[in-house]
Amino acid sequence: MTAPRPVLLLLPGLLCDHAAWSGPAALLAAQAECRIPSWGKLDSIEAMAAHVLATVPEPRFALAGHSMGGRIALEIMRQAPQRVERLALLDTGYQPLAAGDAGERERAGRYALLAQAREQGMRAMGAAWAVGMVLPAQVGTPLFEAILDMIERSRPEQFDAQIHALLGRPDATALLAGIRCPTLLLCGREDRWSPLERHADMHEQIPGAVLEIIERSGHMTTMEAPHDVVRALLRWLDRKDSRAEGKETP
């Protein structure tokens, strides 16, 4: 009898929807039952994680989060680590809003984008904002237009809720050392939003984690380089869980 496909939750990031993960999900269809949640108007990372846990009936699942979705994945690990068979964190971070001037600059920058979205529309805001998401050569291409289409499908009130969630994001630093499931850290070489150095820091703190770098990609690895992302995810899905064998990950 053929073994059932594992459930793989693919968590999208800020102003992202199913399109952010559609390429990898299609390529992984034979290996996993891929599900992509949506966030609606949820306005905290904690509420988004609780939403995932409440709407997935299976007791255990594999979990991959991109950008803000990676922060939600870490919060799921905090709320219900026993349900996560394996964890993948893509182009993301783990630290809270910085204190002092740096935090205020982030806050002001995010709310300036929200004001632009309300005044000029989501697509106009995205046309300026999304330039930093991808390699410069991708700006103006069909890929870039697909990102703008995705941003335009969200409304300013959803943007407001997700900004609130990110500004209030929990500090996951203390969580990292306790992660014991097979863990993948993945980052685009040219990611200017969630740089490689941050993933290298997580790699040092999570026992047994694997760090994979996607060349010729910016922040939107799942759309810029879906085949490379899937190759990394397949290696991750094939990794044995040492806990299942009664051993601790070194």
UniProtKB/TrEMBL annotation:
InterPro entries hit by this protein: AB_hydrolase_1, AB_hydrolase_fold, Carboxylesterase_BioH
Entry annotated with the keyword Hydrolase: yes
Keyword Mitochondrion attributed: no
Top-rank taxon, per record: Bacteria
Record's keyword terms, sorted: Hydrolase
PANTHER family assigned to the protein according to its UniProt record, in alphabetical order: HYDROLASE ALPHA/BETA FOLD FAMILY, PIMELOYL-[ACYL-CARRIER PROTEIN] METHYL ESTER ESTERASE
Protein name: Alpha/beta hydrolase
Organism of provenance: Paraburkholderia podalyriae
